[in-house]
Structures are given as structure tokens and as C-alpha cells.
């Protein structure tokens, strides 16, 4: 999912037990993930600790989470209906105003149902 993409700030929507977040952290990404499940977030923190990586796992829902603007280089939504939050994702990635240092957002899908939106660099 992230091969060939320079690591940066990533957001994992619906972090669950943190499998994708741990993977990203192992590949150099600074990862924040959120989920409504206290147990899922606790498991994500434990899995990150066991893997020896840092993941900022937060208990929150998509309505209350601070998406920010121009904040994320990569947003991953695995088995989530991210289209319901398209406006938040657009603002978070600055879709209308691509930043020179981050490039243009690209949406990718994987066979297992995961979706990733990232900013491809302007090499």
C-alpha cells in the first residue's frame, strides 16, 4: 500500500487492533489512528508496544475526531465507509489546494477492501 511513498503523517480511520498502523509505523510513518472501541484502541496500543513502534491510538468517533487541515500525508480506511466523511478527508489532505511539499492526493484500493488516500510527492 505504501511502497514508493515517502513516509510522513498518516491517519488510520477505524484503527481496531492496529494491524495497519503498526505496519505503517514499521515503515517509518508517524501514525495516528482512532476508533470508537476502547478495547480495540487498547489492543492497538499493546500491539504497537510489542512491535517496538509508536502509534498514537485515540478513542474517538469520526464526528468528534479533529481531522485538521493539511495535516495528513496518508489516510487509511480499512472496511470503513470513508465516503461519509469525504469532506473531512478533503480538508485534511488539502485536495483543492495541493501543497508543494506534499503533492497531489491519490486514492488507491486494495483487493482486501482497504482504501488509502495519500499525497503523491511532486518529484
Fold-level CATH name: Rossmann fold
Helix share, percent: 10-25%
Structural class: alpha/beta
CATH superfamily: Vaccinia Virus protein VP39
Give the total of domains: 1
Mean pLDDT rating: 76
The top level CATH class name: Alpha Beta
Number of helices: 3
Main sheet: strand order: 3-2-1-4-6-5
Give the percentage of residues in beta strands.
25-35%
Q: What is the tally of beta strands?
A: 6
Elements, N to C (H/E): EHEHEEHEE
- What is the annotated CATH architecture? 3-Layer(aba) Sandwich
What value does the Rg take, in angstroms? Answer: 13 Å
Task: Provide an overview of this structure.
This protein is α/β, with parallel strands linked by helices and 123 residues long. The protein has one domain (9-120): Vaccinia Virus protein VP39 (Rossmann fold), CATH 3.40.50.150. It has 3 helices and 6 strands, in the order E-H-E-H-E-E-H-E-E. The chain has helices at residues 19-26, 38-51, 86-93; strands spanning 9-13, 30-35, 55-59, 74-78, 104-109, 114-120. Helix 2 links the parallel strand 2 and strand 3 (55-59). Helix 1 runs parallel beside helix 2 (38-51). The longest helix is centred in the middle third of the chain and has 14 residues, at 38-51. The chain is globular.
Amino acid at each position: 500500500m505504501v511502497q514508493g511513498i515517502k513516509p510522513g503523517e498518516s491517519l488510520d480511520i477505524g484503527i481496531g487492533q492496529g494491524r495497519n498502523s503498526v505496519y505503517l509505523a514499521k515503515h517509518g510513518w508517524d501514525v495516528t489512528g482512532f476508533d470508537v472501541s476502547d478495547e480495540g484502541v487498547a489492543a492497538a496500543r499493546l500491539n504497537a508496544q510489542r512491535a517496538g513502534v509508536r502509534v498514537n491510538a485515540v478513542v474517538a468517533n469520526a464526528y468528534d475526531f479533529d481531522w485538521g487541515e493539511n495535516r495528513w500525508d496518508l489516510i487509511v480506511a480499512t472496511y470503513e465507509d470513508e465516503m461519509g466523511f469525504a469532506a473531512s478527508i478533503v480538508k485534511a489532505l488539502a485536495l483543492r489546494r495541493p501543497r508543494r511539499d506534499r503533492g497531489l492526493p491519490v486514492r488507491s484500493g486494495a483487493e482486501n477492501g482497504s482504501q488509502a488516500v495519500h499525497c503523491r510527492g511532486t518529484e
